[in-house]
């Protein structure tokens, strides 16, 4: 009788243990040693993005038209602007700069001072900077243009440390970095089936990542785009916790207890 009871208890103990394969991240990392990842990944701009565009010059007078147009446009459109001095040159002068936050319209355009309508959607930051620099240098020979996406954010849902909207400052974030920012994945979250929902040109698409596999570094969804939704799916145990018996371990526990009680009563 004692041997049977110990056997059943051993089964219950083993059933409650998680395996290394289910928990440990980046398994098989030795198999991708030397793999080159997409380190030059840049998100492209899309409608409803908000851009900060800085234009700098050594001569404040040549930047003044941009500043005046910015001020007048803000009064009519309500967009935000600021002017500042930044950086220094070898000649000891300071560059005068103007910056403005632009909301990309539904057609993918912005109205930029002096230049008028500029197509933005589909361009990366470096592409837009190069385009604006070429156009502005027709008016300002030493123009320097810097573009930044102000409203880069991703949404995290499910079994993570916190469910939140995460603002990204440098326009570049990977799934592991995002999860680290929100406290990782809880023990009730699936590490091998993380869902990323993404909109591309108005079309919803999705992909899955496996944090337990080193192949995540080669996944096209490894780097996130603005407005991506990352969902950490709950484990089977967590899903079943909404029921009366919370998991298959719980079911086994009930069966084990019933069998044990049966053998105990048989001895009386």
What does this structure look like?
- With 268 residues, this protein is an alpha+beta fold.
- It is 29% helix and 25% strand.
- The protein has seven helices and eleven strands.
- The chain has a five-stranded mixed beta sheet, with helices on one face.
- A hairpin with a 5-residue loop joins strand 7 and strand 8.
- Helix 1 runs antiparallel to helix 7.
- The protein is elongated.
- About 10% of the residues have low confidence.
Overall pLDDT metric? 78
Helix share of residues? 25-40%
Order of helices and strands: HHEHEEEEHEEEHEEEHH
First-last Cα distance:
12 Å
Low confidence ranges:
68-94
The best one-word shape is elongated
Strand line-up of the largest beta sheet: 8-7-11-9-10
Total E-strand runs: 11
Alpha carbon gyration radius: 28 Å
Strand content: 25-35%
Number of helices: 7
Tell me the layout of helices and strands.
Elements: H1 2-15, H2 20-23, E1 50-57, H3 60-77, E2 81-88, E3 94-103, E4 109-112, E5 116-119, H4 125-136, E6 144-149, E7 153-158, E8 164-167, H5 175-181, E9 194-200, E10 203-209, E11 229-232, H6 236-240, H7 248-266
Parallel strand pairs: 7-11
Antiparallel strand pairs: 1-3, 1-6, 2-3, 4-5, 7-8, 9-10, 9-11
């Amino acid at each position: 009788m004692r041997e049977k009871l110990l056997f059943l208890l051993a089964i219950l103990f083993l059933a409650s243990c998680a395996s290394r394969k289910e928990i440990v991240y980046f398994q098989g990392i030795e198999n991708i040693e030397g793999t080159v990842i997409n380190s030059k990944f840049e998100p492209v701009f899309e409608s409803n993005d908000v851009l900060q565009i800085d234009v700098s010059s050594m001569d404040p007078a040549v930047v003044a038209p941009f500043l005046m147009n910015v001020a007048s446009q803000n009064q009519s459109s309500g967009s935000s602007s600021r002017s500042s001095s930044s950086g220094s040159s070898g000649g000891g002068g300071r560059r005068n700069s103007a910056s403005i936050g632009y909301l990309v319209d539904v057609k993918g355009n912005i109205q930029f001072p002096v230049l008028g309508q500029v197509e933005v959607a589909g361009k990366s930051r470096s592409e837009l900077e190069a385009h604006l620099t070429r156009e502005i240098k027709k008016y300002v020979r030493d123009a320097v243009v810097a573009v930044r996406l102000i409203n880069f954010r991703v949404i995290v849902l499910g079994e993570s440390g916190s469910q939140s909207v995460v603002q990204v400052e440098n326009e570049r974030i990977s799934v592991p970095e995002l999860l680290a920012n929100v406290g990782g994945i809880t023990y009730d979250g699936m590490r091998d089936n993380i869902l990323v929902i993404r909109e591309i040109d108005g079309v919803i698409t999705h992909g899955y990542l496996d944090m337990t596999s080193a192949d995540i570094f080669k996944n096209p969804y490894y780097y996130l785009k603005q407005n991506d939704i990352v969902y950490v799916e709950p484990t089977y145990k967590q899903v079943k916790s909404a029921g009366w018996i919370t998991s298959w371990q719980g079911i086994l526990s009930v069966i084990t207890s019933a069998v044990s009680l049966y053998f105990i009563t048989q001895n009386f």
